[in-house]
């Protein structure tokens, strides 16, 4: 909730992610997108199923392609660190277990 987050709170963001595989295959990466609410009536959605905008999704490849079975639980720790050169950009790191 950026409305209540102090500016310095955006310098580094961390989250624990937990996914369940829908089908058998390989886990190659993690995709990111966002939704923003501008008041009660205007919502900007950037997910792959929403109409296109100039905002895009981001994919971070894991560098490995472990096999997964349907129903497998995949966990990761994600850290977004604001770029010192350009505060509009973030470096994304992912650690998988």
Structural Rg = 16 Å
Low-confidence stretches: none
Report the mean per-residue pLDDT as an integer.
91
Strand content: over 45%
In what order do the strands lie side by side in the largest sheet? 1-8-9
Number of H- or I-type helical stretches:
0
| H/E element order | EEEEEEEEE
What is the percent of helical residues? under 10%
Structural class based on helices, strands and sheet pairing: mainly beta
Question: Quick one: overall form?
Answer: globular
Query: How is the main sheet built?
Result: 3 strands, antiparallel
Kindly report the oligomeric state of this protein. Answer: single chain
What does this structure look like?
There is one protein chain. Helix content is 0%, strand content 47%. Strand 8 (73-82) and strand 9 (90-96) form a beta hairpin. By secondary structure, it is mainly β. The mean pLDDT is 91.
